[in-house]
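Our consortium's second objective concerns turning raw sequence data into structural hypotheses that experimental partners can test. To show how far this objective has progressed, the report includes one record in full. It was chosen at random from the queue rather than selected for favorable results. The single chain below, 202 residues long, was entered without modification.
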Amino acid sequence: MPAILAIETSTRTGSVALARDGVVVSEARFTAERSHNAHIFAPLRALLEMAGEIEGVLVGIGPGSYTGVRIGIACGIGLSLARNVPLAGMPSACALDEPGAYRVVGDARRGKFFTCRVEGGRMVGAPFLSERLDEPGGLVFTFDDVPPAPEACLAVPSAGVLARLGSVLPPSEFAGLGQKPVEPIYLAAAFVTTPKKPGKGV
């Protein structure tokens, strides 16, 4: 049976995985302190060699490391074109092995925090930004090394979970996801600064 190949690079622990009919066939993880582009290709090549035919490529689109997510999307685009299969994106907040409802919270920089709500493997609405984190109750996870809230448990999003979720979607639904532009989840507009005027005598 054709398989779904997933890529998740929104945190410093990246992963690639292959799943068929809701079962993860293989998953490989790798860690990069700065950039995933030097670490993703060896496990990805090994996965493709064992995969044979694939039906689609699914990429985690954050929230998370902007650079990491872009590397994952770039790899996904290349595979989609090379294999002539649809490419789809799914929030990295959905990539936790937790079937129930939960929240993912994190530092959104510049004095703000984000909260994502996930139910049944789907993100409900867009990430919510605020200057403080409320106490939401229930299960709360974070991808940050330093939890932004005491009740938040450290977690790592998994390509295996993404692949499993994608592999049980009907082909038409997966193709529908692929019709949307695959781009990172932006928590805020770009922060642009202008250079200071040089001082006298410079």
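The partners drew two points from this record. The first helix runs from residue 41 to 51. Residues 113 and 132 are 6 Å apart (CA to CA). Both points have been shared with the crystallography group to help prioritize constructs.
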